[in-house]
Amino acid sequence: MKRIYTFLFGILTAVGVSAQVVDTLTDVRQVDRVLLLRTDSSLTVELYGREGNPDFRLRHTHTSASDAVIESRAMGWDFAFPALMKDRKKECKAWMSMGGLHFGFVTALAAPQGMKVDMGASYEIGFEALKVNRRWGNDVFSVGLGFNWKNYRMTGYERFVTDNGRTLLGTYPTGAEPEYSRIKTFSVSFPVEYTRRLKHRWEIGLAAILNVNTYASAETRYMLDGKAEKDFSKNLHHNRISVDLRGSVRWRGVGAYVKYSPCSVLKQDFGPKFSGLSTGLTLFM
């Protein structure tokens, strides 16, 4: 942000308050809010919040020759609403954002013996198409819409086998060279998150995520007698609704997260029971 006082006193000069050269009194950058209060005899400038310190307040009154209030806010997906309470520390602010990304690695929890998911080869990726945020001081509550892909991948000597709508654990054919066997899911997600803003632009967040799981498939690849073989099936009985719990820490738009998925991926009696745990990085979330 440019030097705010130079700009404000330029306004005073333009309306004929003073024709003298004005020195910069202070340099405040990335101010959250600016108020100009004008009376018949004075002009008062009030600043609220600055980079790294949302509690910052500054007031300056300049003698001047109909009261008016001017509010200046950041441009973009930022829609400001007037304060609902007299105390400015409880001022409410709301805005919309979009485009947050996350990428992480996944492992299977409480999986049956023989099902060894390789976390280094299993991953999840997702993004938030839209998020509505509402802030009170340093506390932010948000509701969003996003999409998520998870890939549970085994690279050992066990594989997923589909048989009459059931997903079983089985071995590869004799003489086969295993490549991988995996279950992939796709979800439409609705995260509800609480974020606490800390000093120096650090943030911590806790979220509950409702997932509508619209797709699941199983795929196995291996070599047999020099030929590449592939088994693929979309006939999985997966749970259509699930919930994730996520904790995250962020700094300047970049962060890390841990997500616990307590719900079983596959329905009971239709496949091995297991849930998920993932960890990774976030960008602009």
Describe the structure.
The strands form 3 sheets. This protein has an 8-stranded antiparallel beta barrel with strand order 6-7-8-11-12-14-15-16. The chain has a 3-stranded antiparallel β-sheet with strand order 1-2-3, with no helix packed on it. Strands 9-10 form a two-stranded antiparallel ribbon. The chain has 2 domains: 4-72, no CATH class; 96-283, Porin, CATH 2.40.160. The chain has one helix at 4-14, and strands at residues 33-38, 42-50, 53-63, 78-79, 92-97, 100-109, 123-136, 139-154, 158-163, 166-171, 177-197, 202-224, 227-233, 241-251, 254-261, 275-283. It has 285 residues and is mostly beta strands. It is 4% helix and 58% strand.
Question: What is the overall pLDDT average?
Answer: 83
Radius of gyration: 28 Å
The percent of residues in helical segments reads: under 10%
Strand arrangement, major sheet: 6-7-8-11-12-14-15-16
* Percent strand: over 45%
Cα separation of the termini:
23 Å
Short description:
The protein has 1 helix and 16 strands. The chain is mainly β.
Task: Name the features.
285 residues; Porin; 2 domains; 3-stranded antiparallel beta sheet; 1 helix; 4% helix; elongated; disordered N terminus
